[in-house]
Automatic annotation (TrEMBL), chains A, B:
Keywords: DNA-binding, Transcription, Transcription regulation. It holds the Pfam family GntR. SMART domains: FCD (SM00895), HTH_GNTR (SM00345). Signal peptide: none annotated. PROSITE patterns: HTH_GNTR (PS50949). This is GntR family transcriptional regulator. It comes from Azospirillum lipoferum. Residues 11-78 form the HTH gntR-type domain. One of its GO terms (molecular function) is DNA binding. InterPro entries: GntR_C (IPR011711), TF_FadR/GntR_C (IPR008920), Tscrpt_reg_HTH_GntR (IPR000524), WH-like_DNA-bd_sf (IPR036388), WH_DNA-bd_sf (IPR036390).
Length: 224, 224
DNA sequence: ATCTTGGACACTGTATCCAAGATACAGAGC
DNA sequence: GCTCTGTATCTTGGATACAGTGTCCAAGAT
């Protein structure tokens, strides 16, 4: 018997392109509404249009781009309504996920949340806004991924990309918001450890709604 | 000023293929795990592999098929765990949707639910199991689509396809289950009209969990 | 009888080519 | 100056050709 060897399974070009574009969108390297011509992007990435199309098709299903027939593909453009509805839906999913985590995997969940919080702390002290936003995303995904329901986790992932894009595009560097946000995350971990579901719900709701308000403000500001 | 004319915008081949395959899967014309070779299916539908690939890519994102690199594409194959987790997640989404409907569009929601129930009644009397399953799907989508949150509705749509496939594959014709199911739907409408949220939640939970149990039974039966 | 190995086959992954719709802009007509 | 229209160009939509890889089966060796 041969011990299991690590094989580098060659990723398909289309998935590489998908991940690359996904990163670019959620890390705000591309702006909302920006055109993504299959030709141009394919040329710049050194791939032909076929894997480009496949990547764009998947990104469309994830809501990160919109494909307009015969016109082109564009980075999604959130509306105020989107920001609001995303927050509302996030709240539903994350609340349910936290409840499930508390029942089935409290220790692992707490550990992952704590380590994500630590990453946030480092990023904040380094003044790295993008890294902070990424760690914020990881924090929320950490407990969603422990909830034990793959369909819930999948649904969360599809909206998580857009939420992350909002964070990266609209969060203000070094703001009081960031301090507030950090404190809220820490409080959530505490409440989770104390198994205080009522408080946890309240904190989560407060956290998400405050973030939503900030994004909404930034969005209006951006549109002016 | 010209009155708005209806123009038939020609659907892309890939979307036609997608819808056709989607129908085939959720109406149990294709069995779980069945291979869908791009060549073979493309030939039988009279399209080339390019739109085939695009359609399959989208269906994969919806969880209706799985694409195994270098091997092929196959109709998704639900496990017992899937059935359970789908039910659990459905319950979360539908409960939330019903609450939102009651607040923002009770009249339209009730009308759509009622008309879907009528379709179910007709199908039941005609003994058309597939039509009954389809109407069942429409019933549940009717209130989800009135909940006012597009992201919730989208998430529901992605799991709805798989739930519908379970229904079509695993529901038993003319069974007591069907009578039970019909009655439960009617009771739900009543509770909705009376704005009795507590009862409605209980009915929905009961309805979904009973269906889950039936699908689980049919699935093990099928695997033997 | 069982294990190994070679090769044929089938499938996907990618590139290239052609067709058709959408848009922008320039020029003609008023 | 304004409007309409024709055309040039850019975009996607689809078809086809080719290369790479995994799978299966059968033949040979142990």
């Amino acid at each position: 018997m041969i011990p299991r060897l690590q094989i580098e399974l060659p990723k398909a070009l289309s998935t590489i392109v998908e991940e690359r574009l996904r990163d670019a969108i959620v890390n705000a390297e591309l702006s909302f509404g920006q055109a993504l011509s299959e030709d141009a992007v394919g040329l710049s990435l050194g791939v032909s249009r076929t894997p480009m199309r496949e990547a764009l098709t998947r990104l469309e299903q994830q809501g990160l781009v919109v494909i307009v027939p015969k016109k082109g593909t564009f980075v999604f453009q959130p509306t105020l309504e989107d920001v609001e509805q995303l927050a509302s839906f996030r709240l539903l999913l994350e609340t349910s996920a936290l409840e499930r985590c508390m029942e089935r995997a409290p220790a692992e969940t707490r550990d992952d949340m704590t380590s994500a919080l630590e990453t946030m702390r480092v990023a904040r002290e380094a003044g790295d806004t993008k890294a902070y936003a990424r760690a914020d995303t990881v924090f929320h995904e950490s407990f969603v991924n422990h909830c034990g329901n793959v369909h819930l986790a999948n649904a969360y992932r599809t909206i998580s990309g857009r939420v992350a894009a909002l964070r990266a595009h609209l969060s203000v560097p070094h703001s009081d918001q960031q301090d507030l946000s950090f404190g809220e995350h820490r409080s959530m971990i505490e409440a989770f450890e104390n198994r205080d579901l009522t408080l946890l719900r309240q904190l989560l709701s407060q956290h998400i709604l405050r973030a939503q308000a900030a994004y909404a403000d930034a969005l209006v500001e951006m549109q002016r």
